[in-house]
Amino acid sequence: MSTVTMLALAGILPDFKLQSDDGDSATRIAITAALGAGAFGLLSALVWPLLVRALLLVPALVLGLLNFFLNGSLLLLALRLIPDGRGDANAETAVVVAAVMSAVASATGGALAVRDDDAYRRRLYRLADRRRRRAAGAQGPSTPGILFLQLDGVGHDVLRDALGKGLMPTVARWLGESESKSGSRGESERGGGSVKEGASDEAGAGAPATASSPRTPGAPPAPPTHRLTPWRTDWSSQTGASQLAILHGSNFDVPAFRWYEKDTGEVMVSNRPASAAELQRRAVARTGGPGLLADDGASRGNLFSGGADQLALVLSMAARRGKRNRSRAGYFAYFSDPANAVRTALSFVAEVGREVGESTRARLRKRRPRVSRGGLYPFIRAFATVVERDVVVAAVIGDMLAGRAAVYADLVAYDEVAHHSGPTSGDAEKVLRRLDRSLALIEQVADHAPRPYRIVLLSDHGQSPGETFRARYGLSLADLVRAGCGLPVPRRARRTHSGAEARSAVRAALRRPVEEGAGEHRPGRRAEPIVLASGNLGLVSFPDVPHRMTREEIDRRHPALLPTLANHPGVGFLLVRSAEHGALVLGARGAEVRLDEAREGPAGALDGGGPEGPGGPGPLADPGPLADPGPLADPGPLADFGPGAADAVRRTDSFPHTADIMVNSWYDPEDGEVLAFEEQIGSHGGLGGAQSRPFLLSPLALSPAVEDGGELVGAEAVHAVLRRWREEECGHAVRVKSTASTAPTAATAPTVSTATAPADSTAPVVPAVPADNRLPQACPPTAFPAADHAVQDKTH
């Protein structure tokens, strides 16, 4: 095929020739083309990986552009190797020829396939058979590995709606909600759950073969393999807080996506590499354990490492330098195949064009709500939905074929698009379709891995729709705060930037720090407030006061500020701390709720305390277990936000770095809309609507996340469930070496909120993290030959 492609290009491109100046016969030209194609293929196989490894010092996105020029250079070298000078091309033509040849080779070789077609299936068999031969009969682990695949920002309600519309057939099949179809499409939608007949002949000796007979249309759906469990986030419903707790067991003192710390004078931003590294350090010091992925784990495309040995595109590592900085290792693994570079580049360009067209249609049709989608956003969207997705999926496939015990990967595509197009928009639905195809591809490869795998699908938060605060009222939250303080308000309202995770990934790939001042108003004088935005959650801090200001102090300094905020129609409620009454929730028309007031109900610890680490008590020192006063008799402004709102707000009030004033936007329980303080029409970060209702989709082979009637509350509880599943697959738990100077006590163990499970209730509570710091470890490599792994239990 490469020879034919080269001949065709020689006939089309005037500056590309495969014959001497005097002309050659057709046979001679074909021989020349075959020599050129062979030399090009050989150089690509031998030289390309070395070039890409050398170029790891170059920013990742620049590397993607250099791929074309390097490919062209290899082609020029290949043409120079043809005897008698019959091959020739100028530099520009060589780049075009090399790109086209790589694209054709990619398509014909199956690299562009994302469904279970014959070409890709044969390629999988060859990969699996090659690894089996390489193992040479060695014993491999018989216990299943676990894949934790995070669909960033996909809420429980959005998932259910997508299943009902047929957007995600792979997930629907896992839940037993899709009809099996006959023919090749049925096999394609099954996504590798079984292997077609005749597979053993194609795969060679030792390849697995499981017959799958086609079903007639209208047949009942296959039995489910997974169960779906919704869970409830903390007040800070965003990736920084949720993923930190899921991977490391604690999100204590993470009040928002971004917040100001008075003791250091720094603004912490969850997707800033330096901040992510510090948050991970604090979580490890607090729990005393390295994380969910400790021992033979892999972390792909995440904000935090989870204690994994294998890292790729992990933001907390991007701030480091030296041998341990492997945050961009996934780019090498992916771009070492030139066909991948061409495929991703073409898809990238197509996605940019798609976004420009969709945003233009939205503007011409005057859709509301709408935010600006110009500037660099089309390229950021394409990076999240194409480049990062392809690299992360390829890394996960490599982890499975390597037989790693646990993998956690974050796919951010939906979250990025939903921020700007809306959580239920047509744009977002198209992304869900493509993500489902990626899940099918991963499932296909799982059937050929050297060990069985359980696939756990989850989300870290959802998204709530609604227009922006600025669009509705013509001013930002910072302007409203300044007005309440009696400070001048600029005539032109400032825009706050989106805090989407994809932006940080792009900047990390370019080796540029996350922009300072994004989504925040920095004061010109130290006495002025710092106002930060995290979705529909706002934070107001006074930097000249070293401690958290009380309500009484705020009223003395700015008597109009709290009434201005509380009575604004775009504000749902405020959280402040009173010197006399403790935590207070303020609402319109003088509404006030005392969260610390003891009421009849169960007692328990909301969040334990403990030393931060070797340095002893510091900014993270916990005042000790807090008594849970139980359900509020009168929730006041919190009534519309659900029964768990008071517990979530009370827990955040206990954080050392909670802002002087926490502002949650208005929420309409009828249509689920909120008002974002950032420039997003799909937002998350506070309370209100679908943003607080993510999901956990787990195989039936694992124990239920919660028993019937129970509720999964908080990201720390999700960590306990995922860690329990790792222990179940091992059949035992092993104590790991603590990375902190002191092991956590029972008081420091994160627990599930007991407000939803009264003392006399039969609903069980998800077990807390054990106080003896038992974390999952790799299971002993017992049992069966590597060639037999694929025929073992493959429950997904």
UniProtKB/TrEMBL annotation:
Biased composition regions of type Low complexity, renumbered to the chain: 203-216, 738-772
Organism whose genome encodes this protein: Streptomyces flavofungini
Transmembrane portions of the chain: 30-48, 55-82, 94-114
Domain of life of the organism encoding this protein: Bacteria
Secretion signal, residue range per the UniProt entry: none
Annotated Pfam families: Phage_holin_4_2 (PF04020), Phosphodiest (PF01663)
Protein name: Phage holin family protein
Sequence segments annotated as region (Disordered): 177-235, 601-638, 736-796
InterPro entries per the UniProt record, alphabetical: Alkaline_phosphatase_core_sf (IPR017850), Phage_holin_4_2 (IPR007165), Phosphodiest/P_Trfase (IPR002591)
Keyword tags: Membrane, Transmembrane, Transmembrane helix
Chain intervals with Basic and acidic residues compositional bias: 177-190
Residue ranges, compositional bias (Pro residues): 614-634
